[in-house]
Design brief:
By secondary structure, this protein is of the alpha+beta class. It contains 25 helices and 27 strands. The protein is globular, with a radius of gyration of 31 Å.
């Protein structure tokens, strides 16, 4: 008997079979699609990797460069610093252009577009307003005129650099990475573009909107003269000028002149919950620097020493590119110059040539004026008065190309004999900006002369014929001598001091050319053997009248440097680096005392937050801007809150008259603020407060309310939490997801504005150098970020840690790790 067959599986319904079949097909299709997508993504990733790798700069081997007279060697050390050895200066310029383009072309492109007002061509309507503000100055047109008027030798050098740039760009295996992201090709470099880079620095370093004059003008029009004088002094007791002494704060206006108790009550402070979760600031940080020099009598080896750290906004890449250039003059003289270059220009900006070493700080003299036009015919917007009779404004139509739009944006620009019309004042009168940048004297290649200067005297002569944004120029030479002057054109004013907007129509006020070299203030071989500048007032009296006041920084940083230098005898480079890293909070010490005195037993009663604040201010004060100090952050913020409340009330009339008015542009308010806190006059007390004690407690409470926005524990609100670096690439602002790839990792750092070690999250020392001409091998150099702008380069962030930690690394390039030979085309 055979076993029965096992029962079969039940039949599958037709609908189920169709669904299963469809499911299998979907699964197969999805699998094929996903597989294809993986292949595509893999292919795209592979293609992207190939493109990025191909766009890396060439470090070794050989490359042809048209126009070279002989072979050039480009040697790079472990940080990517190139030493360029060339037969001639022109060959060195070609090679530098080649290297700049391969390492930093996108940075160069942004600088020239910023100078010309051409950013919208890359980024579209989002930056059109910036372009419109910059295009008013017509700097591309001005740059072309300057190039056409250059001496033959300088024009030849600039053309050699331009040819090197375009050769270096073309020699890349693929376009630089940023252009892959933008999906645009890079545009070739033009000879005038190097001057547009200089003009971009004008926008960064000087007042292109006449904002300071406008602020002073609003004060003049709305407040009594005694109040205006009290708020607008040239300095304070903190000043440490090279000539003269501290300034006395102008007299406090009495109640018969100005009484806040009789003023309209200003708007009440914002509710604590509405406060921005940020820290109050005293306006934008000053774009400045530190530099100083010691004569040979005060150094360990008897040679002069120069130190320089230029303070600028942080970015990726860093603004400077280190380089060492060596060449031979026609007479056989060998030359070598080492320092920092500004990509887009063919010269060493600051450094040493073995005979002299030089550095800069922004001068903050008065280099622009607002001119109020007197219009003649109400029916004609373009006819204005001049000392020579009526003139018509010249109209030029600037066409701004905007990515994503077919038609350009048309911008009519109106220019007077004194400069372009940049807007209107509160009373509706057109205002013109007279600015050194608008004149041919404002931009030239005179700084090239520093590469071959042999003495302090020769360097000063170069400084007085150089056209760049005016700088405090500090120089030391091989013989042990030192000097200071202002480099850049200084306008010769007549009939006024440049503080307020005014009419030039009747010929009694205006500019009459430029100071002659012998008229420009200069200090050579000072008896004390020390020179220092830090963006504060450097002089007094007739010299100050010549230079004007364009918004000098508070003198606290300069005074701390001066006093540090006075303690050093027989200095070494490391001694000067220590001064650059000095983060002692001398300026805020007295404000700590004010805060503690306000936190009395009565003030603390029923206020546990205030009690905790007092405990932390007493226990965590280190005397420095330390990253672990709650006290430093609290005292700093307390002062800013107090300043905002006090001067917000005093200048309420000005703010009501002009919504754009901002008293933070008055950089010497420390003097008046301290006077008010010490004397506590009732008539200058904000009427919202019964006593000055109440005013002080209000500032403390506002800090406490802001602090809560960061977290519940006041003990966690350290200075380092706030002072954390944000060093970002321009692309990561638009695409934050790329930040981890493109940006420098954030780092808590000590330092602040009113001390030698200037460090803020996005602003600070763009380099630190200490060097003795003739002893460069003992010098020190540090720089944030790295040499290369390419994120796959080993030099993208190389050296950043040394800058963050203040580690002394050599001024001279190190051992050669890569060698690139540039050959004449066809050679």
């Amino acid at each position: 008997m055979t076993d029965p067959k096992p029962p079969g599986k039940p039949p599958v319904p037709a609908r189920t079979r169709r669904l299963r079949s469809r499911g299998r097909k979907v699964a197969i299709g999805l699998g094929v699609t996903l597989g294809a997508l993986v292949l595509i993504l893999g292919g795209v990733s592979l293609w992207l990797w190939i493109q990025l790798s191909a766009s890396l700069p060439q470090l070794d081997g050989r490359s042809a460069v048209p126009g070279l007279s002989a072979t050039v060697e480009v040697e790079r050390d472990a940080l990517g610093v190139p030493t360029i050895r060339a037969a001639t200066r022109a060959d060195a310029a070609r090679a530098l252009g080649f290297v700049h383009a391969q390492e930093r072309f996108f940075q160069m492109d942004l600088l020239r577009r910023q100078g010309a007002g051409e950013l919208a061509e890359l980024f579209g309507p989002a930056v059109l307003d910036v372009d419109r503000e910059h295009r008013i100055h017509r700097f591309r047109w001005r740059a072309a005129r300057i190039v056409a008027a250059l001496p033959a030798a300088e024009r030849s050098l600039l053309e050699a650099y331009t040819q090197g740039v375009n050769t270096g760009l073309a020699a890349l295996g693929a376009r630089p990475p940023e252009y892959l992201a933008l999906r645009l090709p890079p545009v070739k470099w033009r000879t005038e573009d190097s001057f547009l880079v200089v003009y971009a620095m004008y926008f960064s370093l000087q007042d292109d909107k006449g904002a300071r004059d406008a602020t002073f003008g609003t004060l003049r029009d709305t407040l009594p003269p005694q109040v205006v004088a009290f708020l607008t002094g040239h300095g304070t007791e903190w000043d440490a000028p090279l000539r003269g002494g501290p300034e006395t704060v102008p007299p406090m206006p009495g109640p018969d002149v100005f009484d806040l108790r009789r003023e309209p009550v200003p708007a009440a402070p914002a509710k604590a919950a509405a406060l921005e979760i940020s820290e109050p600031e005293e306006g934008e940080p000053l774009l400045g620097s530190n530099n100083w020099a010691l004569a040979g009598a005060h150094t360990a080896d008897g040679k002069a020493l120069l130190a320089n750290d230029m303070h600028l906004p942080f970015g990726v890449p860093n603004i400077w590119f280190r380089a060492s250039l060596a060449w031979t003059e026609p007479d056989g003289t060998g030359r070598r110059v080492i320092g920092v270059t500004l990509p887009g220009t063919p010269m060493v900006t600051a450094g040493s040539n073995g005979h002299v070493a030089w550095g800069f700080t922004n001068s903050y003299g008065d280099w622009s004026d607002l001119v109020e036009l007197e219009m003649i015919d109400p029916e004609d917007c373009c006819v204005y008065r001049t000392p020579a009779g009526p003139r018509r404004l010249v109209r030029t139509l600037e066409k701004i190309r905007v990515r994503g739009r077919r038609a350009p944006d048309d911008l009519p620009v109106f220019e007077s004999i004194w400069g372009p019309v940049i807007g209107k004042g509160p009373k509706g009168r057109p205002r013109v900006l007279a600015w050194t940048a608008h004149f041919p004297a404002g931009a030239n290649l005179g700084i090239l002369g520093l590469e071959t200067a042999q003495t302090v005297d020769e360097a000063l002569a170069v400084a007085h014929r150089t056209g760049i944004p005016a700088q405090n120029f500090t120089v030391a030479d091989r013989s042990g001598r030192i000097a200071w002057t202002v480099l850049g054109p200084v306008p010769r004013r007549f009939g006024f001091d440049g503080s307020f907007p005014t009419s030039w129509a009747d010929g009694t006020r205006g500019w009459n050319g430029w100071l002659r070299p012998e008229e420009v203030p200069a200090i050579v071989d000072p008896p004390g053997g020390r020179i220092w500048t830090a963006n504060a007032r450097t002089t007094d009296g007739d010299w100050l009248a010549l230079l004007g006041d364009g918004g000098y920084d508070l003198g606290a940083r300069a005074r701390q440097i001066r006093d540090d230098l006075a303690k050093v005898e027989k200095a070494t480079p490391k001694d000067l680096l220590a001064i650059q890293l000095d983060d002692r909070a001398l300026f805020l010490e007295r404000w700590r005392g004010v805060l503690l005195s306000a936190l009395t037993g009565k003030a603390l009663a029923g206020h546990p937050d205030r009690a905790e604040l007092k405990r932390l201010v007493e226990s965590t004060w280190t005397g420095r801007a330390s990253i672990d100090s709650v006290a430093y952050r609290a005292v700093r913020s307390f002062r800013f809150e107090l300043l905002d409340e006090v001067f917000g009330a005093i200048t309420a009339r000005a703010k009501a008259a002009d919504p754009h008015f901002d008293f933070h542009g008055l950089h010497q308010l420390e003097g008046p603020l301290w006077e008010l806190v010490q004397k506590r006059p009732d008539h200058l007390l904000d009427p919202r407060f019964a006593t000055w004690d109440d005013q002080l407690l209000s500032a403390a409470d506002r800090f406490l309310e802001r602090a809560k926005g960061f977290g519940p524990r006041l003990a966690d609100r350290t200075w380092g939490e706030l002072n954390t670096t944000r060093v970002k690439h321009p692309i990561s602002f638009a695409v934050p997801a790329l930040g981890s790839f493109l940006d420098v990792p954030p780092r808590r750092l000590s330092g602040d504005e009113n001390m030698p070690r200037v460090v803020r999250p996005a602003f600070g020392a763009s380099e630190r150098l200490v060097v003795s001409p003739g002893a460069e091998d003992q010098g020190i150099f540090e720089m944030p970020v790295g040499q290369s702008g390419h994120p796959l380069s080993p030099y993208y962030r190389a050296g950043n840690r040394a800058w963050e930690e203040g580690l002394p690394t050599p001024f001279l390039p190190g051992k050669t790790e890569h060698r690139l030979t540039l050959m004449p085309a066809g050679g």
